[in-house]
Amino acid sequence: MNSFSPNMLKTFETCQKKYYFKYIQNISVPQPVSFFEKGKNIHALANYYLKGADISNLLLALSNEEKQIWERLLNNEFFQKTYVNSEYNLSTKINDFWVGGRLDALMKDVDDYFILDYKTGTVPKNPEYDYQTMVYLVCADRLLKDYNSLKFVYIDLKNNKNYVINFDTDKKVEYLNALTMLCDKISQTTEFSLSPDKCKFCEYAKFCC
């Protein structure tokens, strides 16, 4: 049975050849640790903080830039909601496929729920229809079942902004259809095409073509 993460879906839509190398051939291309370090530090700190752990030593290890980012997150209105869970794996079955991922945090205000995703880099260009948005909202909808409202919140820590996507019945149908169609397409693909306009910044470009 096929299982897909948001990154797998995004990769296939961006370039099928990259998907083939990364997820079928399982070819891993090393990238500089510093490229992800800032985001990992903030995510780890947020997780420990929300779980009620002592983060004093972690705060001392932050760079000045990371301290500024942490203050932005700490003061964010959605990060101050009531804690439900963090760094949480969730998944659901859609027809013959499983989709899922690991959300940064799930918060609530009475019966209103908020999926938080912290971004130290860039927010998706079209966050409402990003596969992370669609997958997480569909999964959370089935997990929670009974709620007043459900929203996905991208917390843009670089620009100190929030992007809020509301989940309703129309979105649910739209997201389920989009996810089903793409999962079907991936499962039926045997020849993976190259998207040459995406090669410039691709880590597989040197041996791809």
Structure, explained:
A hairpin with a 2-residue loop joins strand 3 (97-109) and strand 4. With 209 residues, the protein is of the alpha/beta class. The chain has helices spanning 6-14, 16-24, 34-50, 56-60, 64-74, 131-144, 169-188, 205-208, and strands at 3-4, 82-94, 97-109, 112-119, 149-156, 161-167. Helix 3 runs parallel beside helix 5 and helix 6 (131-144) packs across helix 7 (169-188). Strands 1, 2, 3, 4, 5 and 6 form a 6-stranded mixed beta sheet that branches. The two termini are 30 Å apart. The radius of gyration is 18 Å and the shape is globular. 43% of the residues lie in helices and 24% in strands. It is built from 8 helices and 6 strands.
Give a summary of the structure in a few sentences.
The chain is α/β, with parallel strands linked by helices and 209 residues long.
List descriptors:
209 residues, alpha/beta, six-stranded mixed sheet, 8 helices, 24% strand
Walk me through the topology.
Elements: E1 3-4, H1 6-14, H2 16-24, H3 34-50, H4 56-60, H5 64-74, E2 82-94, E3 97-109, E4 112-119, H6 131-144, E5 149-156, E6 161-167, H7 169-188, H8 205-208
Parallel strand pairs: 1-3, 4-5
Antiparallel strand pairs: 2-3, 3-4, 5-6
